[in-house]
Write a structure and sequence with these properties.
The structure is a homodimer. Chain A is α+β, with helices and mostly antiparallel strands. Helices cover 31% and strands 28% of the residues of chain A.
């Protein structure tokens, strides 16, 4: 069944089930082996890519809705999503459904709540839903063209993630259990999209006081074996809750 | 005219004008002379206080709506509002209108978008709207009981403001043009709700590189006259745009 037909068939039911005028879009950043990607779905029967999105049941709050939508559309489970902004420009989505009847659910004005998360993409199992031809991780440097205002939703999510580096720890579940200072620096550099000074990074990271230096170093390679670190899980959790040491 | 009557009379018109199921609530923090307050309105005909709030016209985005609502409900103008979170718990507002007919606009389920701002409260002119008996600045330490989930919206706004201290400069338009280091430290302490170490504050603030030390000091008083500073407006604006020096 084609995209238009599916949309039309779902319309009546959607009016009954969901809060009108409101949608959710998810920006799922994936990190693995020094590569940053984002999860996108390809709309059935055309070449447009989109952020995974959907609607809010009349009986659920938006956090529950976002997790359900992500699971149904992509198969991705157990991802801790955080809302970050409402996108409400006039005609941000309506024009996309111009060829549809005015009574069709999708042709309403939608204000969309953006959610984001950062996960290790190698641990996520993906499944394609019935409105999509594909669901894939794409490198943030080589994003396909995204429909509607999804590129600007992506951009805002990335800015939010970067700000978060200033008050929350990051890296647990993204780095191997034991890692070197250059490896965690690389994670920061990739998220920030810029090189950082090695000495400054080292000092600032130690001031955070969330790392334990191990009595071992990385073997092999021509250079001096670099020191290995792991996260101090208790301090890391405290910093997640109360903010980083370096914060106010 | 009583509160119930006004709500009922406005209902039909509201269904035609506004996006259903969606509201806005504004947390306006006011600072002046080392006092932190928040702007609240007293609902007509009962003793409940509320954050200034309202609805979104079908023809406006939420930023325009938030500024219009704040202006209409409180008279406050030219306040730079920032959205920070959607509050969507089931029954967060519906129960408040239990005694009304089910078709009344206000009795819907509302998801509410929270906006916040921090201003010098001595510069704001307030006017009371037709749904309110009063519109006042209340000290954050002595808040009256707030209706619905407005206390938790207030709490989240305060947490957001505190986080913001880690990546954005603050104080312009809140402090006098020339100020001492203890005075700006006091601003931070009042927002954070805790004492800060004087030496650490001094070093960190200087690393931000947004202050200019003046060739004059505060006269009078028994102690050594403290140095005066002012903001380097150009660097302050840059930091607003690109984040603080101390950030990543």
């Amino acid at each position: 069944m084609g995209f238009k037909k599916i949309i039309e068939e779902k319309s009546d039911k959607s009016w009954g089930m969901y809060i009108p005028n409101l949608s959710i879009d998810c920006v799922i950043f994936g990190f693995h082996d020094t590569i940053l990607k984002v999860l996108v779905v390809k709309m059935k029967g055309n070449n447009l890519w989109a952020l995974p999105g959907g609607y809010i049941l009349k009986t659920e709050n938006i956090e529950v809705a976002a997790n359900r939508i992500l699971q149904q559309r992509t198969g991705a489970n157990n991802i801790y999503l955080q809302q970050f902004r409402v996108f409400s420009d006039l005609n941000r989505s309506e024009g996309f459904f111009e060829e549809f009847e005015n009574t069709i659910w999708n042709k309403q004005r939608f204000l969309s709540v953006g959610f984001y998360a950062l996960v290790d993409f190698s641990t996520v199992n993906l499944v394609v839903d019935d409105l999509s031809d594909a669901c894939e991780w794409k490198s943030v440097d080589e994003l396909p063209q995204l429909m509607m205002d999804h590129k600007s939703i992506f951009d805002k999510a990335l800015i939010t993630l970067r700000k978060q580096l200033n008050y929350k720890p990051i890296g647990f579940n993204l780095l191997p259990e034991k890692f070197t200072m250059p490896e965690i620096q690389k994670l920061y550099e990739i998220i920030l999209g810029k090189k950082l000074n090695r000495g400054n990074f080292f000092r600032k990271m130690l001031r955070y006081d969330i790392l334990i230096k191990l009595d071992e170093s990385r073997k092999g390679g021509a250079h001096k074996a670099p020191d290995l670190y792991k996260f101090d899980v208790e301090k890391y959790q405290m910093a997640l809750k109360n903010g980083l040491n370096e914060g106010w």
